[in-house]
């Protein structure tokens, strides 16, 4: 039986102030989540556990307390918002209203200026997805847009729905292959 675990990074200082992208550290609540995640995962006693994170400090800090081999993969980095990195959605509305309107119109295909689209993210995830399909007991600690794409792949979510999927913070998502079907269970950590 194949079992994979997924989590977003703990709340970051940018989440607190509503900025997108960037490379902010965890907030105090995010650090608490990192502790609970490590305790939860250790209690499962998973044989040959591996942890895959992005290269950004908020995912690395989220998994730092977990005793297991850790890989930091750029393919798991958050959607890159190019010229719009480190802005709030309000600032975006003020500085790049046309971009925001275009994005609202076609969020899946929309590519940030000098940045990426959801379709670009899906493309860079292909090698990771093929690898993940052959593994068990991997915990992937990544970001909202990336986890939307990964979960959509396993659950065959229609492409147009991917940019709107709900992947909450401070929640562990367990995906198990049963026969030919993937099954999802979520555990919300009380933070
Ligand atoms: O920071 C970006 C978010 O994780 C993705 O949000 O694509 O819904 O704007 P969005």
From TrEMBL:
Q: Which GO terms describe its cellular component?
A: cytosol
Q: Which UniProt keywords apply?
A: ATP-binding, Nucleotide-binding
Q: Which terms in the Gene Ontology molecular function aspect does this entry carry?
A: 6-phosphofructo-2-kinase activity; ATP binding; fructose-2,6-bisphosphate 2-phosphatase activity
Q: Which GO BP terms apply? A: fructose 2,6-bisphosphate metabolic process; fructose metabolic process
Residue runs in coiled coils: none
Output the superkingdom of the source species: Eukaryota
Record: residues binding substrate: 8-15, 58
Q: Which family does it belong to?
A: In the C-terminal section; belongs to the phosphoglycerate mutase family.
What protein does this entry describe? 6-phosphofructo-2-kinase domain-containing protein
- Please tell me where this chain falls within the complete protein, as first and last residue plus total length: 248 to 438 of 481
